[in-house]
């Protein structure tokens, strides 16, 4: 695996020729039938970007995959966004496997990464391997994401040696929200140096990518410069190799206050609500089902 000091020799530093660029201006060659971690590495080397979205079910996975989103994340945010919990903490490994299986059924080209949920990796590298093997064997995902800093470098090393690609998640780590005192920007001021050290330790341990959540752009830029592997940001400015958003935020399905870093590209809640109201009205008036929908 590439580390911060040793670029992956299998990856060409040459820019991707225009004729093999995938639709929608993707950094991944159109000839690639599956997005691989080395494509993300090449994107960083070539100064290109990639996009990542969460997905928790077959249809959204299919839609995002066909739209050219390079990486799909089966986030433990399914806990809040699908199961209706207040935080990501209650979701179980078994539940993550069900969501993972649905997403991998829909995603034909994207790299699918699943979160190791709270309680499934902290005890030991062995526990992390056992949980990751289940996500890969039963959920059919291609890689796992794990929250935590340099303390978890030995776990990342054990996972990568066991054949599990790891995306490291630093900055605001939602599983630690009670330790961190709520949703707060991380890596400000003096804490920036520690965040760079975390990223370097995790990349050197074999993480193929470092994701940063709610980090000042200057800190994210310093982290990105310190590691050879690609970085992904969510509320971390625009100098990272990739960006990720929770799909319900991005598509306007969720209600309530949005974080500053969320951009809404659609108003799906309004569209669905209008469809449900129209259906309800037609059922009540007897307009549905009409003759064209009747045997
Ligand atoms: O679970 C999730 O959706 C995440 C993103 C916020 C990066 O970890």
UniProtKB/TrEMBL annotation:
Annotated source species: Arthrobacter wenxiniae
Superkingdom of the organism of origin: Bacteria
Family of this protein: Belongs to the PanB family.
Cofactor binding notes: Binds 1 Mg(2+) ion per subunit.
UniProt-listed InterPro entries: Pantoate_hydroxy_MeTrfase, Pyrv/PenolPyrv_kinase-like_dom, Pyrv_kinase-like_dom_sf
Entry keywords, A to Z: Cytoplasm, Magnesium, Metal-binding, Methyltransferase, Pantothenate biosynthesis, Transferase
Gene Ontology MF terms in the entry: 3-methyl-2-oxobutanoate hydroxymethyltransferase activity; magnesium ion binding; methyltransferase activity
Gene Ontology biological-process entries: methylation; pantothenate biosynthetic process
Catalyzed chemical reaction(s): (6R)-5,10-methylene-5,6,7,8-tetrahydrofolate + 3-methyl-2-oxobutanoate + H2O = 2-dehydropantoate + (6S)-5,6,7,8-tetrahydrofolate
Subcellular location: Cytoplasm
Pathway named in the protein's UniProt entry: Cofactor biosynthesis; (R)-pantothenate biosynthesis; (R)-pantoate from 3-methyl-2-oxobutanoate: step 1/2
Summary of subunit composition and partner proteins: Homodecamer; pentamer of dimers.
Acetylation keyword on record: no
Residues at the active site: 213
Top-level taxonomy: Bacteria, Bacillati, Actinomycetota, Actinomycetes, Micrococcales
Annotated binding of 3-methyl-2-oxobutanoate, by residue: 76-77, 115, 145
Residue sites binding Mg(2+) per the record: 76, 115, 147
UniProt function note: Catalyzes the reversible reaction in which hydroxymethyl group from 5,10-methylenetetrahydrofolate is transferred onto alpha-ketoisovalerate to form ketopantoate.
EC code: 2.1.2.11
Family matches, as SUPFAM superfamilies: Phosphoenolpyruvate/pyruvate domain
Gene Ontology CC terms: cytoplasm
Residue ranges the record marks as coiled coil: none
Name of the protein in question: 3-methyl-2-oxobutanoate hydroxymethyltransferase
Major site of localization recorded for this protein: cytoplasm
Gene name of the record: panB
